[in-house]
Every structure is written in structure tokens, then in C-alpha cells.
């Protein structure tokens, strides 16, 4: 008896489970017309604006919340929660006037107090926001955020104060020309004071999430999608056209691409480089090569021989065929980089381009490179130690590094060992300066060349090259302290020239952002820093 | 009964050892949860460490952790604000479990059926067909299979969605990719054990008595032939039920599998530990279950006392 | 992946019985599929050694202008995304994969055999503790630990072999212990003991030769498992044995361009599948050869 029936209960158990679980699968409702589906790639780590840090977090928070300012379709700053503002002569005192018709999704008005509360909350040491440093340009913010600093131990000393419901006064440590673009960044977004004080977990479910942006979260399918609806209590709702915005969480790039091609997604980023040729050849693919503010570079550790010799560094810089790399390896219309700061950042006259004004700082020249290497004591690469090129282990990075490795071998006769390692191990090694050469990318945090140049200041925690120059620091200080565009920009040009003279890293190319977007999607702004895209004005053309 | 209690007790000790090993290994790996390409000011790192109690000495973290696990709380996720490890398991496991159950069921049905039919039709066309089928299953990695399936069935034919978890159509491709290997193995196991049993004297005797093949197979041969399959199912079941992360990643299935890899790469310590514990728990549980089923099925093993085994 | 195959492996090995190696070979030869597979693997080993030298490209020579060329035009298997000769790379990858498979197989079986025979031979409390350890390790999520190990150590073939070996010796240990327990009670061992042979001598002279059969099968079975597992690690970005590439890594690279450059997936994937299949057939053949009962 037992022999026969023992397998059956197991099968029955499975069947029961199937039936129960089958009932739970959610169906998305009927598809309306103004719906946009966007792939967020990975699960946001936090959608509390104060702790939002990764790109998925920023993209989602930017769609459902709003700060004092917002980038418009022309990528210019425009008033958002703030109707207007004043900046003092010395550039250190900002007075914002909040609109009086703005409200939270729970009906309460958005006030200057909400901003003051939100900013101070981010700076509280116990709150431990990893993006707190975004606020460090505010007076005493850094000191308050550091619990070891006992001089500033009260949030009252931080330079932000709501004078009344609608007036917010901000005092900065030093003039910061990009402060208005910072206020468009999620860390600067307000939170509803009453809600956040009453329920510290208010942001963990759509029911308790109180927001003030163009969209509101209506559905939240774990590890799969976020569904947002148009927010009818948004002050500028007449300009919001999308009825629904769906964020999917598909992390595998080729799968996301397949979903786009089967019309399950309206827009995807992170297209595998190997697919680009096919997509470029197809005029209906919807491929757009968006501009980006980021540079791909190889950072040297200049504290150890042979890379302590600037001649070696220049030889390496001059012997990479950048055109071949962007044409055959990366393939997304990247521009070869012969200087450090990417195209797209303002010069003295904000209409001019900092890169174009600065021009190229060096050229590829194999002959010259060999000579340099010879004069550094390595004729034909003889006796050159096997250096290690440290890279993060993504597929496209590995391809690029192999291509460069081979170029150095063919052009200079030197062997470089390419070492792909896992992201966090890579970071650890780079920050501990255990690399010889490290492949890295750097993207803008704000719309100013300074976001790139301060990287190599001797005090910068990011500077993992060992480069330390008083002259360079001086120029950076000069540019940082000044409020006069001419002084600032010319100091920054000189700083970049210094950098290219000493070459603590070599620029390889300037990134682009290739993405696919369906033809009918209109007025969707793709941004170069912070969120991936701005959805406020987007609509589906019929 | 005593047998089961002993098993459970030894399972608990095993769990403790596993927690310890994982805890040590995890902290030995370079990199921490708050590393980023932007060098963070030291004060911010300190604040974060204080918040998640990572500034305490390791042994203290360890003992705190074990205590909270004993209370059934696996702690909050360090990287994902909105989640706790318990909530991750609660959300992810049903999905992985559903997927896994379908996969197991499909593999079991296909495998047992193909195996029996192959054995009965030894060296005929069906046998060779099944051999082809199992050959592919055993030799093609599931992620290659998945890529090909998406290419043909989603992109070319448009029959099934390429990813996400919306109703049965979205289950077809991941189930095929995952079930093929176990189905292939079961087919071969089943075939060889059927052949062995069908050549046994008591079967031959039954056949001589004129019992039809169908009844013979179902009544006499199958219960014995299925034993090796059950043994095989144990670890396979645990592995499939908790999620195959490669397949979950490719098809963007919101199960536990994706979290396994994600938590390691983001050094989300609590999630790493919590999932290891959970996985081991399932594994040990299934092993105990298999042991019990086995004793029911095989009258020769009489650990369950007397009576039922005929 | 490995856990999925593991038990199947055990099932096969359990049926294996000690037997005369020569007789076994005679029986193995009669199994056509297995014999063919053996010839195939030997041929592959030869090609893995010679293949990379059959044309003038090395596995790292790149001509970026010729990236993604289809087969023909001086590239027998076409080129990869960096304009490298796929033919050379595939054979070089085969070499790497076979190496990983062989070394992992040998390492894991050696560890398992030593551990299992000590445990079985010494017996008593030692045996109980040693087997308890195996049981604990069994309940550990396998791939989880491989990933952790790979992060802890420097990447490369050695690391992969070590990581895979560390987790795959458990089955061998159990089986060898079982065999040893059985053999220990045989009369000739008792006789040897009475005649005053030392423990070491008994292990070397009697136990190890008599467990050879199952061990050979075990190695054959671990090899495809290791190759398979390495391919999965590649997929997760962990199996890379860079600057050279294993078959698994090539397959993974090929998947990236599956839509536009199918040959980049086709060649390495077919080869990978054939290798895994061949080793499985050999293992089957060996098992049957060792086990006279199923030899019908």
C-alpha cells in the first residue's frame, strides 16, 4: 500500500501550492494611452529623498518629489517649489520664496519649514545619509554632520532657516555658483515634516509615502516594478501629460533590450556594445546617442617607479589609438579625449563650451611615445616591469582593457597585466593605492568643470593617483573662492593645463549615453547627472 | 521518532556552524557596504557604521546577530532602506518557490514518463529521441538555453514575454530553461533503474502470470524504480526552490535567487547571512523529509519503526 | 549546476564495485558511445594543444578593424568583438576549460579519497566527527561559498580550481569511506593485519588499489561538473581566467552578440556541450564496466 501512494502526496502538495500561488500573480490593468514604461535596471536602495543615492533611487525620487528648483527641457534651472529667489552680493546668502499654492499629496501645504526640517535631518549624524556631503556647501553643515566636531553640535547653527511659511534663508560656507543646481538634486528635496516625525518608516510603502512631485507612487511590486500615476495635487499638473509611469527592475541588459524590442518597454539604457552596430543599422530602432558629462580615464599611481616618471606616463598616453577604441570597441559615438574635462560644461560666457575653449592638450604619436619611453630608460620597452591594469569586471570594461593592453604591447613593446576584479574589491584597492594603473570613469555631479578638476586637488579623497601639487591646489582654491566667472574659469583652464602636463591619469574618451526610446515618446529629457531622465513634460504622441 | 529528533538536533548544530563560517568569510572579503566610487568623508562612513552597529567589535556583532536570529529576526538590510531580511524572504521566497515547484513538477513528470517509455522501448526511436532530449539538457548550460529561448520565443515568435513575472505566460520560458537539466537527469536515472527492475525475477514472474504491462509498470516496477529519483530530488529541490539566480536574473524574476548575488556584490552583510541561514534551513529540512519519504518507500530501511513498510 | 548533478553522480558511483582494472577495460571497450567519447576527448586534448598554433594568429592578436567578422576570409571561425581569431581562442579556451576540469577533478577526488579512507579506516569517534563535518558542509549553499572564495582570493585558474575543489570533494569522501568500511572487513585485510602489516601499508597496498574503480569514475564525473560550474561563474563575472578565456567565458561573450554575430556563441557553445556530453558518456561507460550487473 505505502509503496504505491507515497509519491502522490508530494505531487498533490505541489499542485496545491501552484494553485495558491497562482492566485497571487498580479495583472497590470488595462493599458491607457499616456503610459510610459522605463527600465530602472535595479531596485532602488532608498526612496527617502534624504538617503536616495544610486541612479535608480534618484530617478524615481525625482519623478515623485520636487525641490526648490528643477531642470527644464533645455537643461536649464527653473523655479519649482520656489517661485523666486535672491542671491546676496557676496554669493553666500540665498533667500528662497516658496510658492503658496504648492501642497503635499496629503493636502498640507509645502512650507519653508519642510525644507529646513529635511535638510537638517539629512545632516543629523544619527540619520547617517551617505549623500549628506551634497549639503556641505551650507554653513556649518559638514561640522554638524561630524559627531566628533563638538563646536557645532546643534542643528540651529546650520546655515538654513525658515523665516516663515514661505521664506527660506540659506547661508553658504563660500560662494557656490552651482548651488541652484544642487537644490534640484534629491538630497535637497523637502519631506513632509509631520509625517516623517510621526512615522520614521513613512517611505516604505505607497500608502504612507507623502510626496509633492509630478507623479505619485500607486503600486509597488517587490523587486519587479514601481507604478506611478500623475499627481493631481501637483502645482504644475497642467504641464504633466503622462497618466502613468511604470518603472521596471530588469537588471540583465540583453533582457531589457529584448523587452524593448517586443514593445514591453518604451525606453532602455545600458545597451550591450555588441548590439550597437545592429541597432545603428536599423533606422527604426529608436537608438539615440545622448550626450553625457563623463570621462573614461586610466589613473596612475605616480608614487612608484616607473610611473613616477612623467615621461613614462606620457608615452603611455600617446600610444593609445583612441579613434579605433571608440569606433570598434565602445561603438556609441564617444569622443576621443585629449584633455580631461568633457564637452558640455560652461565657459566664461555660459553659452561657450569649456572644452572647446580649452582645446586638446596632447596628441597620439607612437614615434614620440617610443622616444619618451627610451629616454626614461626603457628602449623598445626593454626592462619595463609588468604593470597591472586594475579594472572593474564588467564585460565592456574587460573588452576595452584588452584592446588597450594589446595597443601598448604592439606600440611600445611592453606587457601590461589586465586584472578584472569585483567592484568593491576594486574600489578598496584603488582607494588604498594598491594599483599601478586603474581604469575608471568619472561623471559630473553638477554643471561646472570644477566637478572634475577638484578630483586632483591634494586634499581630495578621490585623488588616488598620488598627485599633489601646490600650484594646482592654488588654482583650484582660487576658482572655488571666487564669484567672478572670468577669474574662476581661467583658473580652471590653467589647472587643467597643469594636470595634462603632469598626467597623473590619462583621459581616454568622453562617454555618451546611448539609449533606445520609442518614436512616439516626446519631450523626455535625458540628464547627464543625478536622475537618468526627467519625465515631467514627457508625453506619448499619437 | 527518535530518529527525527536526532536529525533535527544535528540540523540545528549544523546551522550554527554555517552561520559562523559565513560570518567569518563575509567579513574577510575586502570592501564594505558603504564603499562607493565617490570617496565619502570619514564622518559619513562613521555615521553609517554607527547606525548599523558595524562599529562594534566583530565578536559582539556576532553574538548580537545570533541572539536576534534565535528570536526569528534576521535584521534589516543594510543597503536597502525599505527592506528587512525577513521581508526579502517573505516577498522573494514564494516567487522562487512557485517557480521551483513548477520546475520540479515538470522535470519529474517529463523525466519519469520519458524514462519509463525509453526503458519499455529500449533501442527504438523513442529511446533515441529521449536520449537526444536528455543530451541537450545535460550539456547545454541553462543561461545559454535561456538566451536562445528568449531569442526565438519572445523576439522571433512573440509567444511569451521575455521577462518579469506576470501570470503563466511569463513562467513558460524560465521553467523550460530550469527544468531541462533535472528532467534529463531523471529520464536517464529512471530509464536505467527501470531496466534493472524489469529484469528482476519477480517482475518476470508477474509477466508470466499474464499481468498487462501497464499495470505491471505502475503497480510493481515504478515504486521501486523511482527510488534513485527521490534521492536525486533532495538537493536539487532545495537548490531550485530557493531560486536559481542566473535564471532569475536573466528573466528578471523577483525571487530570492537575485538577492543571493546582489547581497554579496553589495556586501549587504545581514542579507548575506540571512539568506545563507534560510537556504541551509531549507536544505536540511528537505534532506530530513527525503529521508522520511525514503524510509516509507523502501521497506528495507526500517528506521520508522514497524508496520507500514509491508 | 553542480548540486543538481551531484547526486546523480553518487548514484552512478555507488553502483560501481571494485573489480579488476583489466577486465573493466575490456567491458568499457564494448560500450561504443563511451569509447567514441574517449577518442573524442583525446582528439580534443590534442586540438587544444595544437589548435592555437594552426594559423598565424595568437589568442590575443587583435585587429580592431576586423572585429566581428563572420567565418571565412582568413578567419576559420570568424573573429570576436576585438577582431581576434575565434578559432585560436576557442581552442585555447578548450585548453583552459579542460585544465580547470582535470585539475578540479583530481584535486577534489584526492582530497575526498584521503579524507574518506582515513575516516573509514580509523573508525570510531574520529570517523563520526569527520563524517559530521562532511554533513555540515553538505548543508552549505554551494555556489554562495564559491563566490565568497573567489572574492577573497585573486582571480585566475588556480582560484577557480581551488574554489571548486573545496566544495566538490564531499561526495567522494562519503563513497570512499563506504568502500573502505566494506573492504576493511574482507578476509585478506584481516589476514594482512594478523600477519602484522602496518596501517600505512594496508592503506597503500590494499585499500587504495581497491577503491581505484570508483575513484576513476568520480574523476570523470567531476570534470564536466567543474567545466559547467566555471561557465556559470563566468556568467556571473567571476569565472574569468583573464587574459586568456575559458570556453565558459567565450560562451558568455558570445551571448552578448547572439543577435548580430551568432557564430561567436555557436562554436564555443557547441564545443562546451560536446565536452560535457563526452565526459558524461565516459563516466556512464566506466560505471557500467565496473558494474557487471547492468552489463547486458
Helices and strands in order:
The complex is a heterotrimer of chains A (542), B (310) and C (296).
Chain A lengths: L1 H4 L1 H18 L10 E5 L15 H10 L4 E3 L5 E3 L2 E6 L5 E6 L13 H12 L17 H5 L14 E3 L4 E5 L7 H4 L10 H6 L16 E7 L3 E6 L13 E5 L4 H9 L5 E2 L4 H9 L5 E14 L9 H9 L3 H9 L4 E2 L17 H5 L7 H10 L11 E6 L2 H18 L3 E6 L1 H9 L5 E7 L6 H4 L16 H12 L3 H18 L2 E13 L3 E2 L2 E2 L6 E2 L4 E2 L2
Parallel strand pairs in A: 1-10, 14-15, 14-16
Antiparallel strand pairs in A: 2-3, 4-5, 5-7, 6-7, 8-9, 9-10, 11-17, 12-16, 12-17, 13-17, 18-21, 19-20
Chain B lengths: L1 H27 L13 H10 L6 H13 L14 H36 L4 H15 L2 H15 L12 H30 L2 H8 L4 H13 L1 H15 L3 H6 L5 H10 L3 H29 L13
Chain C lengths: L1 H13 L6 H10 L1 H19 L35 H37 L1 H15 L3 H11 L4 H12 L1 H15 L2 H8 L4 H37 L11 H10 L6 H28 L6
Helix pairs in contact in C: 1-10, 2-12, 3-4, 3-12, 4-5, 4-7, 4-8, 4-10, 4-11, 4-12, 6-7, 7-10, 8-10, 10-11, 10-12, 11-12
How does this structure look, described?
The complex is a heterotrimer of chains A (542), B (310) and C (296). By secondary structure, chain A is of the alpha+beta class. Chain A is 32% helix and 20% strand. Chain A folds into two domains: 18-250 and 518-540, D-Maltodextrin-Binding Protein, domain 2 (3-Layer(aba) Sandwich); 291-513, Dipeptide-binding Protein, domain 3, CATH 3.10.105. The longest helix of chain A is centred in the first third of the chain and has 18 residues, at 7-24. Chain A is globular. Chain A starts with a helix and ends with a strand. Chain B has a domain at 93-256: MetI-like (MetI-like fold, Orthogonal Bundle). Chain B has helices spanning 2-28, 42-51, 58-70, 85-120, 125-139, 142-156, 169-198, 201-208, 213-225, 227-241, 245-250, 256-265, 269-297. Chain C has 296 residues and is mainly alpha-helical. Chain C has twelve helices and no strands. Chains in contact: A-B, A-C, B-C. The interface between A and B is large, with 75 and 70 residues.
Amino acid at each position: 500500500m505505502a509503496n504505491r501512494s507515497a509519491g502522490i502526496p508530494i505531487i498533490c502538495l505541489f499542485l496545491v501550492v501552484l494553485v495558491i500561488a497562482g492566485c497571487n500573480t498580479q495583472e497590470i490593468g488595462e493599458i491607457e494611452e499616456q503610459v510610459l514604461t522605463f527600465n530602472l535596471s535595479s531596485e532602488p536602495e532608498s526612496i527617502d529623498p534624504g538617503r536616495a543615492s544610486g541612479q535608480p533611487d534618484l530617478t524615481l525620487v525625482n519623478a515623485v518629489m520636487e525641490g526648490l528648483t528643477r531642470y527644464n527641457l533645455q537643461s536649464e534651472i527653473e523655479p519649482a517649489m520656489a517661485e523666486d529667489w535672491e542671491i546676496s552680493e557676496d554669493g553666500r546668502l540665498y533667500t528662497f520664496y516658496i510658492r503658496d499654492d504648492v501642497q503635499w499629496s496629503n493636502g498640507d501645504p509645502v512650507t519653508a519649514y519642510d525644507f529646513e526640517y529635511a535638510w537638517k535631518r539629512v545632516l543629523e549624524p544619527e540619520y547617517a545619509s551617505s549623500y549628506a556631503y551634497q549639503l556641505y556647501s551650507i554653513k556649518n553643515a559638514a561640522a554638524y554632520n561630524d559627531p566628533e566636531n563638538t563646536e557645532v553640535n546643534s542643528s540651529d547653527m546650520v546655515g538654513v532657516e525658515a523665516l516663515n511659511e514661505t521664506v527660506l534663508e540659506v547661508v553658504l560656507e563660500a560662494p557656490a555658483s552651482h548651488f541652484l543646481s544642487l537644490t534640484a538634486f534629491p538630497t535637497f528635496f523637502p519631506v513632509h515634516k509631520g509625517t516623517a516625525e510621526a512615522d520614521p518608516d513613512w517611505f516604505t510603502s505607497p500608502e504612507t509615502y507623502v510626496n509633492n512631485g509630478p507623479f505619485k507612487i500607486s503600486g509597488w511590486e517587490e523587486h519587479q516594478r514601481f507604478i506611478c500615476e500623475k499627481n493631481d495635487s501637483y502645482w504644475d499638473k497642467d504641464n504633466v501629460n503622462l497618466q502613468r509611469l511604470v518603472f521596471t527592475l530588469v537588471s540583465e541588459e540583453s533582457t531589457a533590450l529584448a523587452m524593448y524590442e517586443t514593445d514591453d518597454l518604451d525606453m532602455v539604457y545600458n545597451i550591450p556594445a555588441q548590439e550597437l552596430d545592429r541597432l545603428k543599422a536599423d533606422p527604426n530602432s529608436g537608438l539615440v546617442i545622448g550626450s553625457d558629462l563623463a570621462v573614461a580615464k586610466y589613473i596612475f599611481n605616480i608614487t612608484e617607479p616607473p610611473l613616477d616618471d612623467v615621461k613614462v606616463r606620457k608615452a603611455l598616453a600617446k600610444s593609445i589609438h583612441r579613434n579605433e577604441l571608440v569606433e570598434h570597441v565602445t561603438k556609441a559615438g564617444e569622443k576621443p579625449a585629449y584633455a580631461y574635462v568633457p564637452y558640455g560644461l560652461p565657459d566664461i560666457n555660459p553659452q561657450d563650451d569649456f572644452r572647446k575653449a580649452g582645446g586638446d592638450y596632447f596628441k597620439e604619436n607612437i614615434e614620440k611615445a617610443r622616444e619618451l619611453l627610451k629616454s626614461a630608460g626603457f628602449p623598445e620597452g626593454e626592462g619595463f616591469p609588468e604593470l597591472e591594469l586594475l579594472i572593474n569586471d564588467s564585460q565592456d570594461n574587460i573588452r576595452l582593457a584588452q584592446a588597450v593592453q594589446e595597443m601598448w604591447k604592439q606600440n611600445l613593446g611592453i606587457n601590461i597585466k589586465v586584472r578584472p576584479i569585483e567592484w568593491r574589491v576594486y574600489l578598496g584597492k584603488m582607494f588604498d593605492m594598491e594599483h599601478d594603473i586603474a581604469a575608471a570613469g568619472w561623471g559630473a555631479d553638477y554643471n561646472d568643470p570644477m566637478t572634475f578638476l577638484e578630483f586632483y586637488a591634494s586634499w581630495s579623497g578621490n585623488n588616488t593617483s598620488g598627485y599633489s601639487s601646490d600650484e594646482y591646489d592654488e588654482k583650484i582654491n582660487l576658482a572655488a573662492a571666487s564669484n567672478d566667472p572670468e577669474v574662476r574659469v581661467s583658473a580652471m583652464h590653467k589647472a587643467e593645463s597643469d594636470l595634462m602636463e603632469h598626467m597623473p591619469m590619462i583621459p581616454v574618451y568622453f562617454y555618451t549615453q546611448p539609449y533606445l526610446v520609442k518614436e512616439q515618446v516626446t519631450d523626455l529629457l535625458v540628464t547627464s547627472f543625478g536622475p537618468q531622465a526627467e519625465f515631467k513634460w514627457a508625453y506619448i504622441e499619437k | 521518532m527518535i530518529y527525527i529528533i536526532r536529525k533535527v538536533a544535528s540540523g540545528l548544530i549544523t546551522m550554527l556552524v554555517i552561520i559562523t563560517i559565513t560570518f567569518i568569510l563575509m567579513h574577510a572579503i575586502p570592501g564594505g557596504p558603504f564603499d562607493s566610487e565617490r570617496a565619502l568623508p570619514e564622518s559619513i562612513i562613521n555615521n553609517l557604521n554607527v547606525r548599523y552597529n558595524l562599529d562594534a567589535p566583530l565578536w559582539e556583532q556576532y553574538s548580537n546577530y545570533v541572539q536576534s536570529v534565535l528570536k526569528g529576526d534576521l535584521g534589516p538590510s543594510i543597503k536597502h532602506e525599505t527592506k528587512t531580511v525577513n521581508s526579502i524572504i517573505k516577498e522573494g521566497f514564494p516567487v522562487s518557490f512557485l517557480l521551483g515547484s513548477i520546475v520540479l513538477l515538470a522535470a519529474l513528470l517529463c523525466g519519469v514518463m520519458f524514462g519509463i517509455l525509453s526503458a519499455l522501448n529500449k533501442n527504438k526511436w523513442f529511446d533515441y529521441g529521449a536520449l537526444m532530449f536528455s543530451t541537450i539538457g545535460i550539456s547545454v548550460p541553462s543561461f545559454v538555453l535561456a538566451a536562445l529561448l528568449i531569442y526565438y520565443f519572445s523576439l522571433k515568435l512573440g509567444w511569451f514575454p521575455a521577462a518579469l513575472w506576470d501570470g503563466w505566460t511569463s513562467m513558460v520560458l524560465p521553467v523550460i530553461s530550469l527544468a531541462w537539466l533535472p528532467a534529463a537527469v531523471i529520464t536517464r536515472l529512471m530509464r536505467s533503474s527501470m531496466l534493472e527492475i524489469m529484469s528482476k525475477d519477480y517482475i518476470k514472474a508477474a509477466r508470466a502470470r499474464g499481468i498487462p504491462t501497464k499495470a505491471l509498470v505502475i503497480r510493481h516496477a515504478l515504486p521501486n524504480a523511482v527510488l534513485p529519483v527521490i534521492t536525486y530530488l533532495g538537493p536539487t529541490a532545495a537548490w531550485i526552490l530557493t531560486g536559481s539566480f542566473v535564471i532569475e536574473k536573466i528573466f528578471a524574476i523577483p525571487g530570492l535567487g537575485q538577492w543571493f548575488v546582489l547581497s554579496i556584490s553589495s556586501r549587504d552583510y545581514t542579507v548575506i547571512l540571512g539568506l545563507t541561514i534560510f537556504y541551509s534551513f531549507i536544505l536540511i529540512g528537505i534532506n530530513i523529509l527525503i529521508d522520511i519519504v525514503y524510509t516509507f518507500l523502501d521497506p528495507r530501511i526500517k528506521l520508522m519503526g514497524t508496520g507500514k513498510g509491508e | 549546476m553542480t548540486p543538481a548533478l551531484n547526486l546523480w553522480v553518487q548514484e552512478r558511483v555507488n553502483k560501481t564495485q571494485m573489480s579488476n582494472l583489466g577486465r573493466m577495460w575490456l567491458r568499457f571497450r564494448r560500450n561504443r558511445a563511451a569509447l567514441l567519447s574517449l577518442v573524442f576527448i583525446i582528439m580534443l586534448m590534442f586540438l587544444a594543444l595544437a589548435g592555437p598554433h594552426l594559423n598565424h594568429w595568437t589568442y590575443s592578436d587583435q585587429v580592431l578593424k576586423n572585429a566581428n567578422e563572420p567565418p571565412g576570409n582568413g578567419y576559420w571561425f570568424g573573429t570576436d568583438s576585438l577582431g581576434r581569431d575565434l578559432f585560436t581562442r576557442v581552442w585555447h579556451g578548450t585548453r583552459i576549460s579542460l585544465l580547470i576540469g582535470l585539475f578540479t577533478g583530481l584535486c577534489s577526488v584526492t582530497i575526498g579519497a584521503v579524507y574518506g579512507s582515513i575516516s573509514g579506516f580509523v573508525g570510531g569517534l574520529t570517523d563520526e566527527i569527520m563524517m559530521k563535518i562532511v554533513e555540515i558542509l553538505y548543508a552549505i549553499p554551494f555556489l554562495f561559498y564559491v563566490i565568497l572564495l573567489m572574492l577573497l582570493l585573486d582571480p585566475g585558474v588556480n582560484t577557480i580550481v581551488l574554489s571548486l575543489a573545496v566544495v566538490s570533494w564531499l561526495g567522494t569522501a562519503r563513497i570512499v569511506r563506504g568502500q573502505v568500511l566494506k573492504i576493511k572487513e574482507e578476509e585478506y585485510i584481516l589476514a594482512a593485519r594478523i600477519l602484522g602489516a602496518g596501517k600505512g601499508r594496508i592503506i597503500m597496498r590494499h585499500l587504495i588499489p581497491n577503491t581505484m574503480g570508483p575513484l576513476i569514475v568520480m574523476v570523470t564525473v567531476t570534470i564536466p561538473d567543474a567545466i559547467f560550474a566555471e561557465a556559470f561563474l563566468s556568467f556571473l563575472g567571476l569565472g574569468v581566467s583573464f587574459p586568456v578565456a575559458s570556453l565558459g567565458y567565450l560562451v558568455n561573450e558570445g551571448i552578448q552578440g547572439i543577435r548580430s554575430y551568432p557564430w561567436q556563441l555557436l562554436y564555443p557553445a557547441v564545443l562546451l556541450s560536446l565536452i560535457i556530453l563526452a565526459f558524461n558518456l565516459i563516466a556512464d561507460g566506466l560505471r557500467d564496466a565496473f558494474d557487471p550487473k547492468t552489463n547486458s
